[in-house]
Amino acid sequence: MTGPAPLQPPPPPEPAPIVLDRASRWYGNVVACNDISFQVGPGVTGLLGPNGAGKSTVLSMIAGLLPPSAGRVTLLGEPAWRHPAVFRKVGLVPERESVPGWMTGRGFVGYAARLQGLPDAAAARDAAIALVDLAPAADRRVATYSKGMRQRILLAAALVHDPPVILLDEPFNGLDPRQRLHMMSLLRSLAAEGRTILFSSHILEEVERLAGRVLVIYAGRLAAAGNFREIRRLMTDHPHTFTIRSSDDRRLTAALFAEGAILGAELDGELLEVRTGDLAGFCRQLPRLAWESAVTLFEVRPTDESLESVFSYLVQR
Amino acid sequence: MILTIAGNTLGALLSRRRALLMAVLAAVPALVALLARAYGEPGDVVQQTAGLLEASVLTALLPLVALVFGTAALGAELEDGSAIHLLTKPVPRWRVVAGKALAAAPLTGLLVGGATLVTGLILGGDRGAAGLTLAYTLAAAVGGVVYVLLFIALSVLTGRALIVGLIYVAVWEGTLAGLFEGTRVLSIRQYLLGLIAAIDPHWVAGTGAPLAPGVAAAGAVLVAAGSFLVAVQALERHQVSAGD
């Protein structure tokens, strides 16, 4: 007679494919990344930030091309620095084009396939080229490619060994709208197969259209992380400043205050500057209040709508 | 894997204008030999051939060609960022260095060895200098390997490998090794001359006693192996950024 089966402890939770734990990276006195912690799991994650924010440094640390100066970076459970074997499971599309111009597209992707030690490198090469829709131009020298074609051949080389983790640094740079849509659709379908995809971008709309999860990097710090809608709400809700020129600034200011549409106002000569904490409400109320107060609006201009100011706000939050 | 890297590197080295320039440069000793054969003074042909090969091939052509191909094989890729495609593959770094050397060293050996053979045969091939020519050709092939490994290591260590290499060839080997005998033990050219002198001392035209064969062979092996190890270590520590 056998007793009840002993209780098995639950399996330990799988670590996320990409983990940064208080990772910092500095070059001499310049801090490129400061105390960044996040985890990236399967699906598409966007690394959003303005140029020079430290996105490439973060991706380079993840890919093992740069060691962190402090903290820990692991890729598929292991530190990637000085561990080239990890590239069997990772594909990287760098921001620099830097594809040797003398090679053909097919030669370049085939070279990547052979370096991966694939058993049927030629078949993998042709499949990857077909995946990025570049078969007709594959036998041309890369020197004759457009920027978009170079991006796609880089992606083909990164996908040739069918990696579970794909890192892309500004992959949409130089792509025309049709190529952009094609690349987005391709990345979505790759993510749907269970891959972990992390791409960097400085363009909010790109990240919005593709990434389910967003990491916002600004000035080397992780400003925000989470669902795109949450980040978007934070970005929309930060105080906005507008300059307004109208036929009667004083009457318009009074009406805006009375309605609670603005937090503050400054009148400097012929220029009215107002501050609001509710962008959507302000945009709805301003034309209505101007109409009701019989004030003509000549100009309404946002003063701090750059992505930089939004990122700066997120960091200071 | 090493052959894949070597083949790609060979394509890269031959695709640039510098390969043509090196081929033109390699033809210069043969042209000098033709002129010497046509208008030269009568004398000891073996000494004349040794003098020409030592001065034009071992002193100038070999280190120069090795410097250009050795620093371009890996250094050029590190410089322009295209090395990222190689460094993001599951390839141990020693294989990368071996592949690069396997392209640059035979290319150097073939070009300089060929130039040596043609030059020596034109000047004295039918007048008793065939053996000497063969010895210099082999020395050029061996020297190609040692120089190329040294310059590959330099190109991983510094972005100014071409200048540092030129200083080594011109100042250290060209000037100091002639002035101070002690510095000869750290000169690849002296290793090669020592190996040639081991076959026949009269085949070396330069001043000063050549290095003992054992010292020359050990020196060549040590520099080649040491350079290889240094290049591998430096490449393992090499840091690149995915972006601009």
Number of domains of chain A: 2
For this entry, what is the oligomeric state of its chains? heterodimer
Order of helices and strands of chain B: HHHHHHHHH
Question: By CATH's scheme, which homologous superfamily of the largest domain in chain A applies?
Answer: P-loop containing nucleotide triphosphate hydrolases
| Largest interface by Cβ-Cβ < 8 Å | A-B, 37 and 28 residues
Task: List the total number of helices of chain A.
Answer: 10
SSE order and pairing:
The complex is a heterodimer of chains A (317) and B (244).
Chain A: E1 18-27, E2 30-40, E3 43-48, H1 55-62, E4 70-75, E5 78-79, E6 90-93, H2 105-115, H3 121-131, H4 147-159, E7 165-169, H5 177-192, E8 196-201, H6 204-210, E9 213-218, E10 221-227, H7 228-237, E11 240-246, H8 249-259, E12 264-268, E13 271-276, H9 279-292, E14 297-302, H10 307-316
Parallel strand pairs in A: 3-8, 3-9, 6-7, 7-8
Antiparallel strand pairs in A: 1-2, 1-4, 4-5, 9-10, 11-13, 11-14, 12-13
Chain B: H1 2-15, H2 17-39, H3 45-80, H4 84-87, H5 93-124, H6 130-157, H7 161-179, H8 188-199, H9 213-237
